[in-house]
Amino acid sequence: MTEEETSKVGSSLGQILVLMGLILVYGGGSVFLCWELITDGKFAETGDMNDKIPLYIRFGIPTLFVGFGILFFTVLFQRLKVAKTDKYTDVQI
């Protein structure tokens, strides 16, 4: 392997690991937040009306997270598909 190929492999591996870490951290956090919002966690424990989360927040934020996730993966898969057939990958400046 040449030095250029080694750096490409290292760069690709680093990008994959960063993306996996971000997906795990933000995905896990999003799932936990959405679960707490939908089940109305604090209100279920106390029964106090001041702890009740408004309905538009309880279902709006999870919907927003799902929408962002769908958009992210749609764009990611489109970019990966285009990268395979990109005719400008070997063009040098």
List its salient traits:
93 residues; mainly alpha; elongated; 3 helices
Which range best describes the helical content: under 10%, 10-25%, 25-40%, 40-55%, 55-70% or over 70%? Answer: over 70%
Count of DSSP-assigned helices: 3
**Largest sheet report:** none
Strand content: under 5%
Rg (CA only): 21 Å
**How many beta-strand runs?**
0
The helix/strand order is: HHH
Structurally, how many domains make up the residues? 1
**How many angstroms does the end-to-end distance come to?**
23 Å
Task: Calculate the mean pLDDT score and round it.
Answer: 80
Name the overall outline: elongated
Helix/strand-derived class?
mainly alpha
Poorly predicted runs:
none
Q: Can you lay out the helices and strands and say which pair or pack?
A:
Layout: H1 3-39, H2 41-46, H3 55-84
Helix pairs in contact: 1-3
